[in-house]
From TrEMBL:
InterPro entries with a match to the protein in the record: PPIase_dom_sf, PPIase_FKBP_dom, SlpA/SlyD-like_ins_sf
Keyword Isomerase: yes
Keywords: Isomerase, Rotamase
Organism classification: Bacteria, Pseudomonadati, Pseudomonadota, Gammaproteobacteria, Cellvibrionales
An MF annotation (GO) of this entry: isomerase activity
Organism encoding this protein: Simiduia curdlanivorans
Catalytic activity: [protein]-peptidylproline (omega=180) = [protein]-peptidylproline (omega=0)
Enzyme Commission no: 5.2.1.8
Protein name: Peptidyl-prolyl cis-trans isomerase
Pfam families listed in its UniProt record: FKBP_C
Positions of transmembrane segments: none
């Protein structure tokens, strides 16, 4: 293992996986090209970045990221009931269907249909991983110079 240690601004190349407590893998690049980024550049949530600080080149660790340090807690205010007429009449609705909406700034905002009737549709705008503990398995492939 190298003497190089991850610090703020380090250029990192990592292999990682994100999984739920039940073992379901959400994302992984262990069987693919590693990811390269600068620590603190906004490509990774702070809760994940904090785990990397102090790790050495070549080191592999697993961390449990709690919701408040990952994708947040589920917010009941992010679940909206909308009239069915807000959707195209020929749109085939299904529970679990992800629909794209525009927020007040016209940015894309995905929502998941959780229930629907002929009169109304319930849409959950929480991040799909909100409220979940995430198992973050990471290996530091290399540490470059700080940017």
């Amino acid at each position: 293992m190298s003497d190089r240690v991850v610090a703020e601004g380090s250029q990192l190349t990592i292999h990682f996986s994100l999984a739920l407590r039940d073992g379901s893998v959400i994302d992984s690049n262990f069987d693919a090209k590693p990811a390269t980024f600068a620590l603190g550049d906004g490509n990774m949530l702070q809760g994940f970045e904090r785990c990397l600080l102090g790790m050495r080149e070549g080191q592999r660790e697993s961390f449990v990221i709690l919701p408040e340090h990952g994708f947040g807690q589920t917010n009941p205010n992010n679940v909206q009931v909308m009239p069915r007429t807000a959707f195209a009449a020929d749109m085939e609705l299904a529970e679990g269907l992800v629909v794209s909406f525009a927020d007040a700034q016209k940015a894309e905002l995905p929502g998941v249909i959780t229930a629907f009737t002929a009169e109304q549709v319930t849409v959950d705008f929480n991040h799909p991983l909100a409220g979940q503990d995430i198992i973050f398995d990471v290996q530091i492939v290399s540490i470059g110079e700080e940017s």
